[in-house]
């Protein structure tokens, strides 16, 4: 096994910093236990300088949300030549942008709830814009995760409150048709489904507390679906990931209705690794230990942008030989 310096990029600048720190600590412990030369790198606005002061050979991205999951850190790592885990710049940006994701879902005939987009100035005309869209609706920031700023709205007053909450997280907001159905989340590794989990939150919907507070949600691996329906859900998730061209470990979030319909909500390119996170539960059902999953993700670290003189993407893989050491400059 090649002794490579693995940097766990964690923390970040967005509102999901605390979740990222939990993910980073868990990944650090797993890879350290497997004998990797691992170091924690806390991401702030000086991350470019930090990378130069503590050079690494490969980056395991344990960031969530804006500036970590949206292509920003991926672009920095591409520019300095450090292979990294997860999707490349464009797929990361597209998956993070829920509105652009939906446009691609519709283009590729991936079912997704209808929605419309609001900007901050639109709030003064909210009732007119909403018009006959109807209730209940579901409001969420255009970019972001962990259900921060998201929630259902059952009437005009609640709609306005939800939109105001979402605008505190992002300058653009999606108002989506509310779909009543089973919460199903599919885990994939390089586009191949590992399995799925059904989530039953204790509250009104799968909110921040339900996601990260132990005992606030019930989990079923695999979901309580017929074999045929289950296979259909896996196929739709695979199509959703393919149309965004995502790679690495991915989670696709869906709603499965009693009326035999499935709707893709979003694609998550950097799923969490907290004690309540879903991808490790799905992977465990497929025979992966937590350490196995972290190792599998690390082995797929790569540079996605073609560089002059390179005929193939550069990869880090202890199983396939060493990757070029990043040239970080002085």
Label the structural class: alpha+beta
Question: Average pLDDT across residues?
Answer: 87
Which superfamily, in CATH terms, is the homologous superfamily of the largest domain?
A: ATP-grasp fold, B domain
Order of helices and strands: EHEHEHHHEHEEHEEEHEHEEHH
Distance between the termini: 29 Å
Pick out the low-confidence regions: 311-330
- Largest sheet at a glance? 5 strands, antiparallel
CATH topology of the largest domain: D-amino Acid Aminotransferase, Chain A, domain 1
Q: Please give the radius of gyration in angstroms.
A: 20 Å
Question: Biggest sheet, strands in spatial order?
Answer: 10-9-8-11-12
Q: Helical content, roughly?
A: 25-40%
Question: Based on CA inertia axes, which overall geometry fits?
Answer: globular
Number of helical elements = 11
* CATH-derived architecture of the largest domain: 2-Layer Sandwich
